[in-house]
User: What shape does this take?
Amino acid sequence: MSEPTQGAHCARFHLLLGVALCSLMPAGTALAQTTQPPANQTAPDETSDKADANTIVVTGSRIATTVITAQPITRVTGDDIAKRGFTNLGMALLDQPAFSSPGAGPVGSASGSFGAGQTFANLYDLGSQRTLTLVNGNRFVSPASSSIFGAVAGSPVDLSQIAPALVDRIEVVSVGGAPIYGSDAIAGTVNVILKKNYQGFSVSGSQGISGKGDGHDFNASLLAGKNFADGRGNIAVSVFYDRQDGMTYADRSSQIGGTKPFTGTALPGNGYTHQLFYGGQHYNIFTNTGIPLFADDIPIYKGQPYAGITNAAGQALTFNNAGQLTPFINGQLTGSGLVQAGGSGFAIGDYDNFLNDSERLQGTLLAHYDITDHIRFNGEVWLGRNFATNVAAQPYYNTAQFNSAGQPNGNLILSTANPYLSAADRQTIINSLAANGSPTDTFYLTRANTDLSSGSYRTRTDLLRFVGGLTGDFNAGERKFGWDLTVNYGRSTSSTASRELVNQNFYNALNAVSNANGQITCAPGYTSASYPTISSTCAPLNIFGLGNASQAAINYITANAYTHQVNSQLDVQADVKGDLIKLPGGYLKGVAGYEYRRESAFFDPGAFFRGELQSDGSYLEYGGSVPITPVSGKFHTNEFFGELNAPVISPDNEVPFISSLDLNAAVRYVKHSLTGGFTSYTGGGTYAPVKGLTIRGNFTRSFRAPAITELFAPNGSTFELANDPCDQRFIAQGNNPAARAANCAAAGVPANFTSSVVDATAKGTTGGNPNLQNETANSWTLGGVLQPQQLRGLQISADYVNIDIRNEIASLSLTDLMSACYDSSLSSPFCSTFTRNSASQVTTFAAGNFNIGQETFRALQGNLKYNLPLERLGLSASAGVLDLNVNYLHTFRHYYRVGTGDLQQKLALSQNPANTFTATANYTRKSFNWMVQAIYYGSSKVNPNSPDSDYQYPIIHSYVTFNSSIGVDATKNINFRFLVNNVFNRGLPFPYSGLDYARYYDAIMGRYFRVNATVKF
Assistant: This one.
């Protein structure tokens, strides 16, 4: 058989969710029936008074219960995941409206600088660091980088490390998790519950490919389990392999790349400041073939030659792919002097990661053994090795926007005698230099070096995790008690490798000369970099055109750079639980326990990214990256917790107007080695005036302790873009636009100012803060569940979710710093955190982490489930079953604020439309299953923090896509499934800009096909 079963000698308590599960089911009863009934049966009524048969432990409590929980719970089953063909649990959760784009993920550039392929759940878009993820109720070690350039400052779990075939279900609890599980559960708790007592053998394989013939994925999975010792024990092994081909933005250039429509600065004379342009966003300050200049500046501004070399006709020139000068072709001008729509400029949209290239291999062993009828051992062993490549990123730039000529990332200084120049081009450059009064022996070159350094990097992540525990039960008189002891240790090591350009050798190779024999060589007298490049032999570099550099030159100017991350986690939990006092509705049940947790993280940037030590103790970058500092730290906690569940009234009491009344409460005291003590608590209950209608509510005081990165990261350099409040595009925004405009004028910023930092980064510093304290949140939910007796199998729930976060740790951006200055007064301390030059352009800034943020979230979360055996409609019993499941989220409010700055709206961003729903219909009949799913995103805004009048097209249209799959049992043991995502090949919604690529992944990928075959014994 292949169903998970319980042996005849089962103990009364089982380790599920990391705590005791009171199970009084008869021997041989399938555990899955408690939550996932056969297709021709309805699910057990959560309010059923058959307590013994249906008692389970759900996420958000350590007490087994038969009632509807006080907090809303969403469940995603392993069957749901299989029918959608997901190979990554983190991406599977995006089907649920409550989840926003992962804090790190395989889509786009969300993985940060050192964590390709990792996927972190992000509930309500409150941040992956505020979504606690558990596996079987236990914490799971995080692979997240503790560098300031990591994707998330915290300890989120990488859901891509869990094999989908191993999952029984995923339970998602809104708020309320902190008193039960501790830190990080501000938004809620995601609990991945694995299959238990699996007996049988299952192997499956699938292949997927897009309708365009790319994005190929192959995976294979094996799950084998066996009972032993007459059913007293079980051992199960899972092996999972997945291979996903990566893609760049250029592979979908018309949708997200260099030719897609974009919203840019509007042309003068319009009533709005942001306009939709077609042809792709192209920067005219450089190309990836090179633009020559007569001065250390930008070559073209507003479509006219500025400091660029021109021909006799006055046309600005650029090198073509072959390395020959040709006139620069202007695209459509925009309101920004640096950006055009189309034309010869750099198509920046083509040079970034759309989908990681990845290879994952994971092995898991699950085992338990009943030592006696009252003591059980449970164990888990996890091994994993994941490789993932961020296939593209922004290249190494040389432009006056980033530095002075001859400095890292500044314009290149080249000799007019460079032997790679043709005689005609050399003369054209010399003529233009002379005409502009510049020396004729050297010129400048601005370039995006896509052929020398792609910006891609590869991450290897290794997982080692052990979980061991004992559970048991005993009686004290008529009272039943259980106990649980669990030890959980995990270690995650990650390393990245990338090929980086080394400045010193780059400059050496650029200085090419012809020797007496007519050979092109490096000019003599150079000094090579102290960091070893791939080749130590200087080879001259042909920098003109695209792809004309020799491999020898590339090997000389580039080096392999490596980083290393080690995270460890030790978690020990012990509790005792049981019946305390007899109440009218049943026994008052309680839990008391203790938890010890120790976590550490260490990030080593490696010699290349650390840079070269200078005599004054500072570091100088070897390449285009600023010097990156190591980060290390550790902490431990001692935590004491307790929980009570009081069934005050049950249906058996026959109290008028009260079918049932249950109250619950929990408290946890956490003594953190760095932030001190904190008490988290929750209270709530359920009230059913009549059978079939339950009203529920909950209040929770939760917290998040600061992460090691936020505490210990030394100050280091960073580059940022910013929405400069004094820029003409943003000066009319903020809480008080009049005060903003007055402060900008008083600071000497001219009217109608255009800030360069909006389009090109400025260099600053950022780092950790050892004085950070806990984030805190007051949260509550209120809702109800309707299960009408007249419509068996129908359940409708709706809950209002309210979350207020205070003391939020804010990693202040340059935008935050400037807004806090100009939106208050020029005497604000934030005004000293950045500097402007004589032209009012931002030159430097100093950011960091502070407990000065607040965030507010308000939403209505709804669910409809209907299980309908078609025989109820008068058809035969073999007609099959129709299941309908609809999840809906309407967000009323979601914003954050840093200090006294203006409110930053997150509601109505493309990743957070006000209305979203997922509707899934399943028809099952004997050996046939058909699933149809619709996913809807309501309309959103390109920028909800600006007035609609600022944009030509401010509203992003609503969007709906359909997915489908058909499964057929060819024999009793063989199943085939054919899946199609985005059945109707729906593209991105108008106006195409401001879209979150992870949420609209299927729209970008287009129609996608997958075939799966499974063999079970």
Notes: The mean pLDDT is 91. The chain has twelve helices and 56 strands. The radius of gyration is 31 Å.
